[in-house]
């Protein structure tokens, strides 16, 4: 028997491969086999957790789309990205401007799809890759938000907004053409973060550069270069933002966007459109939103009280960093919405002039997705601010806010809102494409996608 002289001790017999442990008050020896070799990889567990989070978030994005929507190409996904990747020298397409700016990540998706995936699965591939990238963005938001949000449920909720914001499933989720909105949301958080390791710096810079070479709206984030400007750990990320923004501005100057010549949208319509798209669509089920606007338009605007109340909480009990973040989110929400509508004005954005009947079929725009994310994030930040205080009442209020946010997101998570839901599906058209290629004089098959657009697929892919 062994008498313990300390709280706990252990002796390992290398030759016999056993360990003996004794605790205070015990008079016996416990032996257990020891592994012949223990391999420890620093950060492996964390990396596995982050990969798992990205995968689960991507699956959520995928499940928010119907099978037909997944198998339907959206707009530029076919006619611009896939068609270019299948017909032109691929390396020349990567930084080719389209509509006045660069689209690096969608073009990479198209090249991977054309080179690695059978033609009948091209639409599913573009959808899956876009969902995977959305999952990666959600993980980046989770990692980057830790300086502002210390409460785990709040961080998870804010990162989940990447794929669970109700309006996102209408036009943004699962297609490469509008993936830039999700990347912009991710860059916002990455630029505000301070990486604590060299790996974090390089990963953040690489993510920022890819996103900045995909979305021209990153120019709105240039003022954030002043955030933590003396902290050298943030310089690689900020340098990547500057390089990407300058490349986008150059692309706009060399290949400017073609303007439609439509009249400008009034300031009142901009304000009402922001309230409808960025606020009301998050708290009123979208299938019921038109009827609610038609029946009680002023009452719908009461939804504004939710983000405004969250901001009031942040400014009353939040940290200084949270207060600055709240202001950035509000200003960013307004700027992103107004910029999108002002650059691409159309009669359906003239909300102030709409009759009750027209409001029943109100137009909801992809330009409202990121603004909605920013306003929904205010609730998560407010909950974290309350949770930092030991008072029981405040902690109960924090949990209540999280319940309200989660319920609002989950109510619409399964709504079939995607504009691709009616097709035309891609895979069933392959048989027709084969017939076109069998006809003499047809070097490419013409297939249909959304918005009455078509995409020409070289027959070498169809025949293969």
UniProtKB/TrEMBL annotation:
Keyword presence, rRNA-binding: no
UniProt keyword Membrane present: yes
Membrane spanning residue stretches: 43-63, 172-192, 204-227, 239-259, 295-317, 324-343, 363-384, 396-414
Keyword vocabulary terms for this entry: Membrane, Transmembrane, Transmembrane helix
Signal sequence coordinates: none
The protein, known as: DUF2029 domain-containing protein
């Amino acid at each position: 028997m062994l008498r313990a002289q300390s709280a706990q001790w252990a002796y390992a017999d290398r030759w016999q491969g056993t360990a003996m442990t004794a605790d205070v008050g015990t008079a016996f020896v416990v032996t257990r086999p020891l592994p012949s070799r223990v391999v420890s990889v620093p950060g492996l567990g964390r990396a596995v957790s982050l990969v798992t989070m990205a995968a689960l978030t991507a699956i959520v994005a995928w499940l928010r789309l119907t099978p037909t929507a997944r198998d339907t190409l959206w707009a530029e996904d076919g006619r611009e990205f896939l068609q270019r990747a299948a017909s032109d020298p691929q390396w020349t397409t990567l930084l080719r401007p389209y509509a006045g700016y660069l689209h690096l990540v969608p073009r990479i998706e198209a090249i991977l799809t054309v080179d690695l995936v059978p033609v009948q699965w091209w639409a599913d591939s573009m959808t899956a890759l876009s969902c995977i990238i959305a999952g990666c963005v959600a993980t980046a938001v989770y990692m980057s938000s830790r300086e502002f949000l210390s409460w785990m449920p709040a961080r998870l909720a804010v990162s989940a907004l990447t794929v669970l914001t109700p309006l996102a499933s209408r036009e943004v989720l699962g297609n490469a053409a509008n993936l830039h909105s999700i990347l912009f949301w991710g860059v916002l958080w990455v630029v505000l973060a301070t990486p604590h390791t060299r790996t974090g710096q390089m990963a953040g810079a690489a993510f920022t550069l890819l996103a900045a070479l995909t979305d021209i709206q990153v120019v709105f984030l240039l003022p954030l270069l002043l955030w933590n400007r003396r902290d050298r750990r943030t310089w690689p990320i900020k340098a990547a933002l500057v390089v990407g923004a300058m490349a986008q501005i150059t692309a706009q100057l060399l290949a400017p966007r073609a303007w439609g010549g439509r009249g400008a949208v009034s300031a009142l319509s901009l304000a009402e459109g922001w309230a409808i798209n960025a606020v009301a669509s998050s708290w009123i089920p979208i299938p019921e939103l038109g009827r609610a606007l038609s029946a009680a338009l002023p009452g719908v605007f009461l939804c504004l009280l939710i983000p405004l109340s969250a901001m009031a909480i942040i400014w009353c009990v939040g940290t200084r960093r949270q207060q600055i973040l709240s202001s950035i989110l509000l200003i960013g929400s307004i700027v992103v919405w107004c910029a999108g509508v002002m650059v691409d004005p159309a009669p359906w954005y003239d909300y102030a002039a709409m009759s009750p009947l027209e409001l029943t079929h109100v137009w909801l725009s992809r330009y409202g997705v990121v603004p909605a994310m920013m306003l929904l994030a205010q609730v998560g930040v407010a909950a974290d601010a309350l949770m930092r205080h030991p008072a029981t009442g405040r902690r109960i209020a924090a949990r209540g806010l999280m319940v309200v946010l989660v319920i609002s997101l989950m109510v619409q998570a399964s709504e079939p809102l995607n504009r691709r839901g009616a097709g035309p599906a891609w895979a069933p058209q392959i048989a027709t494409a084969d017939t076109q290629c069998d006809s003499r004089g047809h070097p490419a098959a013409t297939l249909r996608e959304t918005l009455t657009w078509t995409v020409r697929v070289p027959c070498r892919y169809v025949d293969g």
